[in-house]
Amino acid sequence: ELEIALKVVIVGNGGVGKSSMIQRYCKGIYTKDYKKTIGVDFLERQIEIDGEDVRIMLWDTAGQEEFDAITKAYYRGAQACVLTFSTTDRCSFEAIKAWKIKVENECGEIPTVLVQNKIDLIDQTVVSFDEAENLARSLGCRLIRTSVKEDVNVASVFRYLATKCHQA
Ligand code: GDP
Ligand code: MG
């Protein structure tokens, strides 16, 4: 039987929770002091979409985003994208448009979702509800609010993207 593999890139400023999201989704764990294991490029998880097996491959950026030095290899062959910002980091929100352009330059137009992570810290938010909604609308993306910490909506992000890719 045919197995579909889907390479998904997760971009956004450092500290928004990208590595934690990959660990949560693929390994079911959350640690506050997660440090990337050297040598691990990606993790994967298999799910079923419309009765078909889809292998979701998630690539981590290993902190390179701090230096604006993500290599072309990171983006190569990516079929879907997660644009991530943090509820408590205004800069990460304002950087989303630049991240979208970067991914588009490398990958063209691929199914993309906007993720507002750390929704468990909503009482400390620096981004209003309307601002997040308006950004999603202007980018033409769905907005999904997640808490990797509390495991809220993380699986929905990848199920949504896999479904979009499957339909395309
Ligand atoms: P990255 O730089 O984007 O890969 O971000 P990390 O995954 O390293 O996470 C940065 C920090 O945010 C870590 O201390 C995480 O434990 C924390 N973090 C990640 N997701 C959440 C979340 O949903 N809620 C809260 N409160 N903290 C989170
Ligand atoms: Mg990281």
From TrEMBL:
The keyword Acyltransferase does not apply. One of its GO terms (molecular function) is G protein activity. GO terms for cellular component: autophagosome; endosome membrane; phagocytic vesicle membrane; plasma membrane. It is found in: Cell membrane; Cytoplasmic vesicle membrane; Cytoplasmic vesicle, Autophagosome; Cytoplasmic vesicle, Phagosome membrane. Its cofactor is Mg(2+). One of its GO terms (biological process) is anatomical structure morphogenesis. It is a lipid-anchor. It catalyses: GTP + H2O = GDP + phosphate + H(+). Its EC number is 3.6.5.2. Its main location: membrane. Keywords: Cell membrane, Cytoplasm, Cytoplasmic vesicle, Developmental protein, Endosome, GTP-binding, Hydrolase, Lipoprotein, Magnesium, Membrane, Metal-binding, Methylation, Nucleotide-binding, Phosphoprotein, Prenylation, Protein transport, Transport. The keyword Ligase does not apply. Interacts with SUFU. Belongs to the small GTPase superfamily. Rab family. This is Ras-related protein Rab-23. It comes from Corethrella appendiculata.
